[in-house]
């Protein structure tokens, strides 16, 4: 685990550092208004990539990770799952892309942000190509081929980041950036697909496709709901803010993304290995141990960025992109709730169907969307935060409760509650008391808060979070957080 995580971490630091270090240059050249337009197009690309996968990647992970057979008479071993998953992903992606290209002119008229049909077409192409890249790469992670995965993603990042800088420097602006995004995604998709065909082949066998769709389509519904809670709000906000204010918001969101990037090495490892952890020796305790470490890591990352966000915005984007300090802190609170829900809901993924995930996502999305359309027109950015927080909180509660009902696991609830309390208190205190403080004092105060957070987490969840000897096999279940097993 340590070797793979280090490789993932190293590749991600390199890959995202290249991308993130070019971002300030792009933002300063484009300015807040054009940067806001670019942010909306990138959001469209991400949405298309999420939907174009049709949940097939999670279904392949479900069957290929454990090498199970779906049902008598319908074999679905690891190789069949990967081969049919690839064929299904390519077919669904092509059909989806054709439909999107046909409606691009209409979308350009109805979407906010003064978008052009050609720019939307480039975003759609890049999104579908990213879905074709995702399945072969998640199989590499599942096979623990960290070096192959890292090499692929670093080359991909260099193509995109280098192309973006050249396009902006030559004066091609947003069109150049989106052309680079689509071109590099298509090129790397070809490489990924050829690599996967050599490994497992490609197939479309009805008996194997059926279980993949039965498991994957409800997750597609979850993906739609996820976009409603994390992506669609940008389009709604853009319709009610002037372009300059939206550009400022887009810069604040990049600090949110900074935490996502920093957490990604663990997330990549966790997403591909969680089934094997649970199926291995002392699986439940090992799963809880690593999930809890992931929760603590995310809290430390988000707290650091929250407390230092005025300094980070000024250094990265300049005075033209300044926003109130609490904007970023509030967005990071939403990220924390989502991360805790993801890391404590393993029970939802242990059946043959995934309908409970879809129900939870739709319930949370309904709350979020209702809030977006009722609160943003009235309150602006504070309305956005209220809507996102309500949806994330509902998803966290439902995911944890239903997951525990299906498979009770001894997560340290008290330690997580303490982490939330420290984050809220520190973020509020920094936003109201330390505005205008020098960078040295700000960094020192943030370091003290992180030390306090780690110490309190250890005290309240020591037997799970940091067991003696730091070994999962020595853990004992905390009495205060023990969950009664149900038959």
Automatic annotation (TrEMBL):
Residue ranges of the TM segments: 7-27, 47-64, 85-107, 119-140, 147-169, 175-197, 209-229, 249-271, 287-309, 315-337, 358-375, 381-398, 410-431, 437-459
Membrane topology: Multi-pass membrane protein
Domain of life: Bacteria
Cell wall biogenesis/degradation keyword on record: no
Pfam family, any one: Polysacc_synt
Annotated localization: Cell membrane
Chief site of localization: membrane
Keywords: Cell membrane, Membrane, Transmembrane, Transmembrane helix
One Gene Ontology CC term in the entry: plasma membrane
Name recorded for this polypeptide: Polysaccharide biosynthesis protein
Lineage of source species: Bacteria, Pseudomonadati, Pseudomonadota, Gammaproteobacteria, Chromatiales
């Amino acid at each position: 685990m340590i070797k793979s995580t280090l490789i993932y971490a190293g590749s991600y630091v390199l890959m995202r550092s290249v991308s993130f270090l070019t971002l300030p240059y792009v933002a300063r050249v484009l300015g807040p208004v054009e940067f806001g337009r670019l942010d909306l197009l990138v959001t469209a690309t991400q949405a298309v990539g999420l939907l174009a996968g049709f949940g097939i990647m999670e279904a392949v992970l479900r069957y290929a990770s454990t090498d199970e057979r779906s049902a008598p008479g319908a074999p679905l071993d690891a190789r069949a799952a990967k081969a049919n998953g690839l064929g299904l992903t390519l077919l669904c992606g092509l059909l989806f892309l054709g439909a999107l290209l046909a409606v691009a002119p209409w979308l350009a008229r109805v979407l906010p942000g003064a978008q052009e049909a050609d720019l939307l077409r480039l975003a759609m192409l890049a999104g579908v190509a990213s879905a074709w890249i995702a399945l072969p790469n998640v199989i590499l992670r599942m096979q623990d081929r960290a070096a192959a995965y890292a090499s692929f993603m670093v080359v991909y990042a260099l193509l995109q980041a280098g192309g973006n800088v050249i396009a902006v420097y030559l004066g091609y602006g947003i069109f150049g950036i989106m052309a680079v995004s689509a071109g590099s995604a298509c090129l790397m998709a070809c490489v990924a697909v050829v690599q996967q065909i050599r490994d497992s082949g490609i197939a479309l066998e009805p008996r194997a496709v059926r279980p993949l769709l039965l498991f994957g389509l409800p997750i597609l519904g979850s993906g739609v709901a996820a976009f409603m809670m994390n992506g669609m709000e940008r389009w709604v906000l853009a319709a009610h803010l002037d372009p300059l204010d939206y550009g400022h918001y887009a810069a604040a969101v990049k600090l949110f993304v900074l935490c996502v990037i920093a957490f990604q090495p663990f997330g990549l490892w966790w997403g591909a290995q969680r089934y094997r952890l649970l199926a291995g020796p002392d699986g439940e305790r090992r799963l809880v141990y690593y999930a809890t470490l992931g929760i603590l890591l995310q809290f430390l990352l988000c707290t650091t960025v929250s407390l230092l966000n005025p300094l980070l915005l000024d250094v990265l984007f300049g005075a033209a992109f300044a926003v109130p300090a609490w904007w970023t802190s509030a967005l990071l609170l939403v990220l924390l709730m989502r991360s805790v829900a993801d890391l404590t809901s393993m029970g939802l993924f242990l059946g043959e169907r995934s309908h409970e995930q879809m129900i939870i996502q739709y319930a949370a999305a309904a709350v979020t969307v209702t809030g977006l359309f009722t609160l943003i027109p009235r309150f602006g950015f504070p309305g956005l935060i209220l809507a996102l927080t309500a949806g994330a909180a509902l998803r966290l509660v439902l995911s944890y409760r239903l997951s525990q009902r299906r498979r009770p696991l001894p997560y340290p609830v008290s330690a997580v509650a303490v982490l939330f309390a420290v984050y809220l208190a520190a973020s509020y205190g920094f936003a109201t008391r330390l505005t205008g403080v020098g960078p040295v004092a700000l960094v020192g105060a943030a370091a003290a808060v992180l030390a306090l957070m780690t110490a309190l987490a250890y005290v309240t969840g020591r037997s799970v979070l940091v067991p003696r000897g730091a070994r999962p096999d020595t853990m004992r279940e905390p009495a205060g957080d023990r969950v009664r097993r149900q038959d």
